[in-house]
Amino acid sequence: MVKTYRHESILGFFKGMSFPIASIAVVNSVLFGVYSNALLALTATSHHERRLQPPSYTHVFIAGCTGGFLQAYCLAPFDLIKVRLQNQTEPRARQGGPPPRYRGPVHCAASIFQEEGPRGLFRGAWALTLRDTPTLGIYFVSYEWLCRQATPGGQNPSSTTVLVAGGFAGITSWVTATPLDVIKSRMQMAGLEQREYQGLLDCMVSSARQEGLGVFFRGLTINSARAFPVNAVTFLSYEYLLHLWG
Question: HSE-up of 226 (CA within 13 Å, CB side)?
């Protein structure tokens, strides 16, 4: 944090933010929409009926995995651009100094398309899919389990329960997601660093050989700290809107 602030000022902490803001509504709409509809198809019960007839954890896991799988392909290009911009460590352009490689998200997307082709925008997509598919199954199972433990049968969970369950579900999902998140980010940066991995397995083996197994848990602390408030608010919004419009 100190090095980022000294080298890039306070703006360094907000790199790559515009694309996530532009995409988060679409990505979450896909995730929660597919999850809810997959659960409806598996159980034939609406959201309001699920408190009286709770779905099995197997159905929750399958629905979550389905949402995670489809979300990953919507997220891949946006996530790639975010990672590239966040890893661009040059300070803001100064007179007489070298300009940054990417001038913004649109320029970043255009540069990747020009230099790496259409497939370049989906670099790391397999790692992202492998990260999100099981992780989001675990995410929804954790949330459901915590809500059921704190809520009497047949009743809707309170706002406090939803906030706490959503926050801890977010932390649980990031504990399982971080190893593949590290690999995904390295594969996404490979095109910029002119380094080509032969695939997902090659990236994992190379990283472990050079930096040890601890490399797969880099960023876990900050991811977990971010996950609690973000997912607490996400689930509260989800439950409130379904109740409002259901």
Answer: 8
